[in-house]
Amino acid sequence: MVTGCSGSTFIMPTPTASAGDTAYLRGVNVFSLYASRFQSTDSDSIGEPQSSYDYLASRGIKLIRLAVPWERLQPIKGYKLGADETLTREQLLASLKAPIDKVYLAKVVDEVEKIQTAGMVAIVDLHAGCKYPSNQRSNANNPILRCGDGITTAQLSSVWKSLSTALKDERGVLGYDLVNEPNTSELPGGLPAYEALAQALITVIRDNGDSKIIWVQSPVNSSDAITATTKGPTVVDPLNALVFSQHFYPYGTALKDLAYTPEFDASTLKRIDGFGMWCNTWKVRCSIGEIGWPGEDSAPTGGELAGWNSLGDRMYQLADYYQMDVTYFEAMSSYHEHLVAYDSVHNDDTDKRLFPLPGINQAHSQAEVIERHPTTGDIDQQRLGRPNLSPIK
Asked: Residues 157-207: pLDDT tens digits?
């Protein structure tokens, strides 16, 4: 039993399946393409070197969730990379009418092929949050477009059709993650509008002759909305190859470098368990697309570090129990931040973003937990949508 400082408790479930009954992939988010989205970098400086993926594979990593920035696939018109400029709404609207940048799309394909060469597979994540530009707060000087408010379903569908056309025959691609962390409180139409958008994107990909697995994320605005519904999943796939996905961090740690206290434990584990129970109730496959906790930066004492890793280990135990794919957030060699599990020794010497990337070649404290919960089962079976698997009863 886990007890938080406030008295809240959580009892870990008892595993009931043998190793032969389980199959799931484990890996990391590689964030390097996204981290460089506004950097003034030429094409040769984009992405990790092959050595990064070889290193991750040597640590037992099998799955890479590859974050791809929308604003490099469709560059902002009139914006010089690396410049400190004020954008206009008209500028952004015009940008979404432009074709996909074929040179950058080729770089995404190149990154996927590096992943395959290392013996791993990728989930290609359009890391946009139903926003353009992504991960940007709207204010008078920095307007932002959102799905339903400047971004049409047709425009996002066109992006996914281009990605699908480029990637559907790439064996290194296991599947796609449609929209990163959609916040339905910011979208006109709320949750129903997001569900309709997700269904439209699934249809576009399938109509393009693409049979790869598709991850569909829950909104992040409050109470895990997509799993709170009593009617189950509201999007469907003719190939039955959907995976429902959520992200889990101990509260506050995704954005801040916090010290460990036992107060984090029960609340974090209850959220993951609630998601797992929803997945089993509706007999759907599920994944944790992002999971993370602070490491050495936030743990100046051995006790704090042990506390974070103990919580992380129990988070993974729940993922094991519910047979979820998991990709830890994050790995990259462009710079170091408090959640990173794998980066470069060169990141120890500077706070600056490094380009070209030196390559991932060292592990941090979180790697101990990640590597204790490896991939099980056959990747090719998972590539086919895992038709012979069912959730733990």
From this structure: 999 999 999 999 999 999 999 999 988 888 888 888 999 999 999 999 999
Q: Which of 81, 95, 85, 83 is nearest to 131 (CA)?
A: 95
What does the alpha-carbon distance between residue 3 and residue 9 come to, in Å, rounded to a whole number?
4
* Percent of residues, the chain, with pLDDT higher than 70: 84
Measured between alpha carbons, how far is 226 from 244 in angstroms, rounded to an integer? 9
331 bridge partner residues:
30, 342
What is the reported pTM? 0.92
- Cα-based angle 346, 361, 126 (whole degrees, multiple of 5): 95
82: alpha, beta or left, given left = phi > 0 and alpha = psi -120 to 50? left
Contact 63, 29 (CB under 8 A): no
Distances in Å between the Cα of 49 and the Cα atoms of 54, 115, 150 are: 9, 10, 36
Domains belonging to the chain, first-starting first, are 2-383 (3.20.20.80)
Give backbone dihedrals phi and psi of 248, rounded to 5 degrees, phi first: -135, 125
Sequence length of the chain is 393
DSSP 80-97: -TT------HHHHHHHTT
Burial class (CB in 10 A: 0-12, 13-18, 19+), 362: middle
Q: How many CB atoms lie within 10 A of CB 343?
A: 24
Is 366 in contact with 309 (CB distance < 8 Å)? yes
Tell me the H-state helices in 229-376.
263-281, 302-321, 366-372
